[in-house]
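quick one, two chains, predict together pls
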Amino acid sequence: MRSIQGKICAIIFVFTLFPMLVIPAQGYLIPLEWAEEIEYRALQVDQETTAEIVVVVLQSLTGHEVTDKDGNEISDIVQLGVYIFNELPLETYDGPTVVGIGKEGKDNGVLILIAIEEQQWRIEVGYDLEGDITDIETNRIAQDYLVPQLSQGNYGEGLYDTVVALGQQIPVTNQTAEVRGTYYYEQYTSTEEEVPFWETDWFLYGVIALMILFGFSVGVPIFRRGGGRGRGGRSGGGGSTGGW
Amino acid sequence: MNRKFLLLIVIVVIALIVGGIFAALYFGTYNTIVSLEASADAQWAQVEQELQRRYDLIPNVVNSAKLYIEYEGSVLEEITSLRSQWAAASQTGDVDSINNATGELESSLSSMIVVFEDYPELEASQIVEDMMVELEGTENRISTERMRYNEAVRDYNVAIKAFPGTFWASGWGFESKAYFEAKVGAEDPPQVPG
């Protein structure tokens, strides 16, 4: 369970140090209560099964600026799902980013990706869970829990029900592993408010530069940005896709 | 006498250093190429596994479709015969012929999906929907693994053509590998109808 202080620190940390595209739960695109419910449920699944169910909500399949290796924005939801699952660094609540959903070597991740404008969903399943959650099962779960709610505009509830249903497919294990801690991500739209200058990156870099110049030792978290937790699980296009 | 001895030592040390650097470069390059080749081969095995998955799936798709489609038998027959051609190409293990057979099979599967969309009762069938989901998942897996194979091949091909590998690679018996290209009509994996 994460503490309230941890959460506040995480939010401050994320806002100041990670002005990246996809940020942990803020609840702009879905109600905050549902984002928290999703986080809580996914954390339980992680604790019980070590599997990681990650939800990513995008406003649109264009303009998200997630690019492939040649620098082109990925607008196909299947390819985007594979890329987010395997290549995109995603922040975790205590700072370090992790590439790959699921635990390394176990490949036990699940990604639920929705694009609101295009009304498309994608469930991508990690290699090792393909037996527990077949493509047909992902489609049925999506048709039963996700699509009806999405078509009503209840994004949060639909995503939560889908996380629950997918979580029930994954067998409980005695093994323990470090939990991921953050499971809900959404497209960050910076147009909502002006960031004051003391919260901008450049100001921070200036402060860091000054601190270094004056021989201060800089707090460890600042240097975590590039480090990351390393590699997580992998997937290979398993799962299903559809619209609502 | 003493000076000569010193000179000899200096020459020997320099020779050792240069030789050491050369040996490190030589064996390092060899090891790099070997490991890149191994990962390309491993990735090719992944591609073949997914192609095999599609091969195994086709009879199920065709049989469940046969229950509903009576007048479009030619499409199903074509798929069945292309499936056999693919199997023959797969036996040869040649990337180019597998590539060709795969492309033809993919475009005829796409045309089958189009036919399916003309039959509302077919779309309503749970069995057919499941089949389509399976087929779609398989196509997505193939394109994902194919992309990774091509990336692995690119890394390998660059390593044997770039400095310093280019001097030694052919002597070591490494040849550039063929890419596994997606054919026209195969870029878009079939979608679940509806």
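Chain A touches chain B through 14 residues (CB under 8 Å).
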